[in-house]
Amino acid sequence: MIRQNLTITSHENKAEDYIRLNIQTDDKTCGYIDIIADKINFNISFENVFFKGIESIDKNTIEYRESRLLFKFKDGQQMYYRCCPKAFEHISKHIKCYANTDKSKRTTS
């Protein structure tokens, strides 16, 4: 489990199906998470940790508790990020929309 002082400092829509989450640790930029349609691309590096990879949305789950966003992967690994409720709601809405593999049933409302 990766547990560091990781914080989602901002989130932005790059396109209708693309959200970028900017990540910091100890007030230093250390990477980003791109959520593009049904894929999540992690690119995070700090101290002696380097986490890079693409995951399918349906291969992991997210939770929000105590102001932390938790990614749980099918292989048992977990990553925590400090995150405001507004950012979590935005991320959760996107994931619910794009986790549906039937593209004809996707909604962004």
Name the poorly predicted regions. Answer: 103-109
- Inertia-based shape: globular
Number of helices: 1
Computed Rg: 13 Å
Strand content: over 45%
Largest sheet: 5 strands, antiparallel
Instruction: Give the strand order of the largest sheet, numbering strands 1, 2, ... along the chain.
Output: 1-2-3-4-5
Mean pLDDT: 85
Q: What is the helix/strand order? A: EEEEEEEEH
- Class computed from helices, strands and strand pairing: mainly beta
How many E-type strands?
8
Measured as a percent range, the helix fraction is 10-25%
Characterise this structure:
The chain is mainly beta. The chain contains one helix and eight strands, in the order ββββββββα. The strands form two sheets. The protein has a five-stranded antiparallel sheet with strand order 1-2-3-4-5, covered by helices on one side. It starts with 5 loop residues before the first strand and ends in a 10-residue tail after the last helix. Mean pLDDT is 85; it is low at 103-109.
For the structure shown, list the relevant keywords.
109 residues, mainly beta
Provide the fold topology.
Blueprint: E1 6-15, E2 18-25, E3 28-36, E4 39-46, E5 49-56, E6 60-65, E7 68-73, E8 78-82, H1 85-99
Antiparallel strand pairs: 1-2, 2-3, 3-4, 4-5, 6-7, 7-8
Structure in a nutshell:
This protein is mainly β and 109 residues long. It has 1 helix and 8 strands, in the order E-E-E-E-E-E-E-E-H. The strands form 2 sheets. It has a 5-stranded antiparallel sheet with strand order 1-2-3-4-5, covered by helices on one side. The chain has a 3-stranded antiparallel sheet with strand order 6-7-8, covered by helices on one side.
